[in-house]
Predict the structure of Glycosyltransferase involved in cell wall biosynthesis.
Amino acid sequence: MTNLHVIQTLASIANEAAGPSYSAPSLATALAGVGARVEMFTVGDGPPRPVEGADHRIFPQSWAGLPGLGQLRVSRAMQAALRTAPADLVHTHGLWLAPNVYRRPDKAFVISPRGMLGPAALAFSRTKKRLMWAAFQGRAARAAALLHATSDQEHDEIRAFGLTNPVVVIPNGIDVPSLERPAAGATRTVLTLGRIHPKKNLTGLIRAWSRLADRQGWRLRIVGPDEGGHAGELRALVAELGLDDVVVDGPVFGTGKLAAYREADLFVLSTLNENFAMTVAEALAAGTPVVSTKGAPWAGLETEGCGWWIEHGEVAMTQALAAAMARPAGALAAMGAKGRDWMLRDYSWTRIGRDMLAAYEWAVRGGTPPGTVRL
């Protein structure tokens, strides 16, 4: 492969609770590691951590104080820089914000929707998104040389939405920490971690928890940043149901987040829809087995013997939790170890970087598409 000059763009990587704040910088580092020259362009906020292997340029936001425009994270400086940058390809992460439509018409353009074309995601702020699609996002999406899906499920959502561009299916990678499990305590923990948002269906999880016939010795820990006051709604539901074994905590990051995964006996994801769900990969990498709804593309939980992949609904969630919580601590730990081995085998960032660079090469130079690309 010849070296390519790639620019990764997204609105911000300052929010550590957002998946792209991890996956986009990690992809940039992986691409640099396999020979690409990589720059990252973001707007306004500083990064939570350095983007290793890439030149990270943070551009000022235009009209930040104006209603409407301020939310779109417009940056005329970023737009101008992209017009003159000597890059071979621009890859943007996400939809619906101004940096996701900035491109060079004479250069290959790649979009990672990051789950934002899933039905559950589109249901939130539906009218605003329709207007944005008609105004600017649709034109940019249809012009993309390549769309990036992180799973077969996201590929199908892209097609169902009506886009016919070539799609490359490459999952996110994961950094796998050392396997360190603390000694079992008197109380065992079911953990869910991520944005506290209605899309995560945490109300359904709490109601499923309340239906369990035997919760003795267990607690449910809900951890994450509050969005729109939803954490308060969850706490009110917990009080209404009289649950003294459910806690709703604020976000944790870095070593605190890793400790939360390691201390949990079981991780649960009750989401309505995800394109990938980094939290599932993070839990498995830490050696924790997982229960996930089929709103996330993790069928491998069952084929790899490291969890449960279940239908939506309180009954299905209650049944899966009951089955998992009935297992001895050692049996759950063994399942978690299988999940960690799976992450090491199939989700290394080096492999992801090589696959993505091959897709970029095809988008820029043509020829026979790699096996990851679906026409």
